[in-house]
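Exercise: predict the fold of this chain.
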Amino acid sequence: MTCVNAWMQVNWDDMRTVLALVRAGTLAGAGEALGVTYTTVARRVQRAEDMLGQSLFERHPDGYLPTAQAHSMADAAEQMEQQEHQLLRQLAGQDRSLSGPFTLTAPQLLIQAQLAPLLAEFTLRYPEIELRVKASNDLLNLTRREADLAIRISADPGDTLVGRRLCDQRSACYATPELARRASEDPSAPLDWVLFSEHAAAPKAALACYPNARIRGRFDDMVALIAAAQAGMGALRLPLFLARATPGLVPLPQVPTTPYAPIWMLSHRDLQHAGKLAAFKGILLPWFKEHADLFTHH
């Protein structure tokens, strides 16, 4: 029996499980990707190996090491997976109904600060649509339909999806009223800052006005960073839309606004004419047109 003929005896769930295990390297990781338990992953892999009469993975304490045969099966499964996703996207793109599931992904803080009323309006206008929101800064795989529509803050959203620039953005520097007052009274005095962990120094626009910056802390989470600033730990930079929804902070005097990554709407081209996607765009696009100033002006 040739390798391809042998694979044809393996059912799709088992082939898909081999692919997930090759990708993840562990039973737990593969199970999480597939939405099943790690014991189910192990059982399916063993069933595939029994069908083929050969081992697909070397078992090690820290994970499963795929053999050449496992990689070959994973490649074949990936091609089948891509065809499956393409078919499902094409079917969804032909669906003009305004009922059933619709999945949106958007940054949590953008939803919290500005978009929640828009989502409420959508659900009121289309009560038969089952809105599912994945609040995340990660760009989910729209090709695999992890989401139907993505709203992303990005300087470069890429060219593999259909993208529309919803609005430009600007940012500014903020602090508690007391910290802003002290900075204004003595611009040369040390000014405390809290930074996002990826940023090396205080913003250049602020340093031009307040050159004696002192970094009090770095944070890998924006909610924690804002809380630290509200507690008076230091000044910080925020996009204008988020600053509007953040109590207890005021702009640092004399510091101009600066460009910030724009907001994009992204979807797969196969879904461009889907009814639920069109319905959401019908609310989303006018909202951003009407509220563009929230993102570019104090």
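Check your answer against the key: DSSP finds twelve helices and eleven strands in the chain.
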